[in-house]
Amino acid sequence: MAVQHRPSDSLWSNGPIFILAVTGAAAGLGNVWRFPYLVSANGGGAFFLLYLVCLAVIGVPLLAAEIMLGRRARGSVVRTYGHVAAQEGRWPIWRIAGWIGLLVCCLLLASYSVVGGWSIAYVFRAASGMFGDLDTLQAAEVFQQLVRDPERLLAWHTLFIAVTMMIVARGVRWGLEEAVRWFMPMLFGLLLLLTGYTAAASGHFSEALDALFLPDFDALSWRAVSLALGHAFYTLSVGMGVALTYGAYVDERVPVLRSAVLVAVADTVLAVLAGLAVLPVLYSSQLAPASGPALIFQSLPLAFGQMPNGTWFGTLFFLLLAFAAWTSAIALLEPPVAYLVEKRKLDRAHATSYVGVFVWLLGVVALLSFSVWAHVRPLGTIPGFRRTTLFDLFNVLAANILLPIGGLLLALFVGWRVSRRSLELDLGAGRGFRVWHFLLRYVTPVAVLIVLIDAAGFVRDLFF
Ligand code: PHE
Question: Tens of pLDDT along 102-115?
Answer without folding.
Answer: 999 999 999 999 99
